[in-house]
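lol forgot to send this yesterday, sorry. struct tokens for the thing we talked abt
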């Protein structure tokens, strides 16, 4: 048997579980390229939409959920971060989703329509017979605790209709893609790693995509996920989708009368994720004071991002007009404050990127200040994208405040930013060709025609802002 025939026999089909809809039956507010995505996702049944901020994922997932509800006549659930629920419901009203859409907190409130439920309340709804599930901001599959992530995967195992939606995943975070594949029932995440990747000899915790498998890997991902950074990636027009100017200015503050540690004023060379808080506490007052000074020169809405509770406490003290959203607040209070900022009821918001830095659409705001910065580039990037997104009409101004002792943080974030830019370009390029081929757009066709079978990664013999 020839080698290629041998490899072909090891392919495992991944059947489509969806159904076909006529493009004329899709929501009229969808652009042509968005309609392609929704039609394809419904045809697949289980799929992921990796689309950059501002490309209309909310409308796509709402229209997908609407059609799945019409098909199954069972309640559909959309899981979202806590602050995003009412925003999603407002989008449903705006785009005239033709079934009832409701934010629910208890099983007794579930409607025969689209139910929007916090991830944190998932355990309450284990006995509800949903007809389909949407994970909004599905990058939480990477960040959630293993218990919660496992609960999500196990709760919906075998479900015919699943959709995961998030911005373009970090291309160098292979577990994020693996967790998506596992949730969707495409393949086990460990199986994906074993078939396409190898362990870095210098770091056994790091997985590296095998060179000869690169093209096959991204072609495989494109079979169950759509990844677009702009409309032209799926045959649309980029007109009107140019991002505004982004101005990032770093401010370094000096701190007087610091307390030396072990004979040194600051251990800059040895600063790390474990020792950083000793330094941050000493520079907290100066950084927050600088944030208040910068805010005086800002007209209109502004977001002040912090990294710790003690930074939030000091910021609230020096900027009393601001509202603060922190993790200890009740979900209803978080939603009230975040929604109020979205509506313009409050001018200044203080919060952590881990709390309000995902899912919110704040194109009405174009100024933000990072009074505290951690080592995570992903949190930094996602926080910026709340305002710097398609639909923003003004230049976005980002002020990053660091003490001179915290230059190590700046260096780490800058390095991760450079890595992210390089790898994201590679991922977009790799998936663009596979996506255009899959939709037949190279030949000028318009909508996806499914293959009889889709191939799992088993044909590889042994073997994406972070």
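and heres what i got for the seq, position by position
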């Amino acid at each position: 048997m020839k080698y290629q025939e041998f490899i072909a026999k090891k392919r495992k089909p991944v059947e489509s579980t969806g159904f076909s809809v006529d493009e004329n039956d899709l929501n009229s507010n969808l652009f042509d390229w968005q309609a392609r995505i929704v039609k394809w996702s419904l045809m697949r049944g289980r799929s992921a939409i990796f689309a950059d901020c501002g490309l209309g994922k909310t409308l796509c997932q709402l229209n997908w959920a609407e059609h799945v509800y019409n098909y199954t006549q069972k309640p559909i659930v959309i899981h979202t971060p806590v602050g995003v629920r009412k925003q999603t419901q407002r989008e449903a009203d705006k785009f005239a989703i033709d079934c009832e859409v409701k934010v629910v907190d208890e099983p007794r409130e579930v409607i025969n329509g689209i139910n929007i439920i916090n991830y944190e309340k998932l355990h309450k709804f284990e006995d509800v017979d949903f007809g389909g599930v949407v994970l909004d901001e599905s990058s939480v599959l990477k960040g959630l605790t293993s218990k919660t992530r496992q609960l999500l995967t196990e709760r919906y195992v075998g479900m015919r209709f699943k959709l995961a939606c998030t911005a373009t995943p970090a291309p160098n975070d292979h577990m994020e893609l693996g967790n998506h594949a596992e949730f969707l029932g495409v393949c086990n995440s460990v199986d994906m790693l074993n078939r396409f990747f190898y362990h870095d000899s210098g770091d056994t915790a790091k997985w590296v995509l095998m060179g000869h498998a690169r093209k096959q890997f991204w072609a495989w991902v494109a079979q169950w996920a759509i990844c677009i950074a702009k409309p032209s990636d799926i045959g649309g027009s980029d007109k009107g989708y140019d991002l505004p100017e982004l101005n990032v200015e770093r401010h370094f503050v000096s701190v007087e009368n610091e307390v030396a540690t072990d004979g040194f004023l600051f251990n800059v060379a040895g600063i790390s994720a474990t020792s950083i808080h000793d330094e941050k506490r000493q520079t907290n007052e100066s950084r927050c004071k600088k944030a208040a000074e910068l805010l005086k020169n800002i007209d209109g809405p502004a977001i002040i991002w912090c990294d710790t509770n003690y930074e939030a406490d000091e910021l609230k003290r020096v900027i009393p007009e601001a509202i603060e959203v922190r993790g200890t607040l009740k979900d209803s209070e978080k939603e009230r404050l975040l929604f109020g900022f979205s509506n313009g009821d409050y001018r200044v918001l203080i919060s952590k990127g881990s709390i309000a830095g995902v899912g919110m659409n704040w194109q009405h705001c174009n100024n933000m200040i990072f009074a505290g910065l951690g080592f995570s580039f992903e949190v930094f990037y996602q926080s910026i994208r709340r305002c710097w997104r398609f639909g923003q009409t003004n230049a976005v101004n980002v002020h990053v405040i660091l003490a001179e002792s915290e230059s190590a943080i700046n260096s780490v974030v800058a390095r991760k930013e450079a890595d992210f830019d390089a790898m994201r370009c590679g991922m977009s390029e790799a998936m663009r060709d596979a996506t255009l081929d899959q939709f037949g757009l190279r030949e000028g066709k318009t909508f996806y025609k499914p293959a009889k079978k889709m191939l799992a990664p088993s044909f590889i013999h042994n073997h994406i802002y972070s």
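The chain has 15 helices and 15 strands. anyway ping me if u want another try
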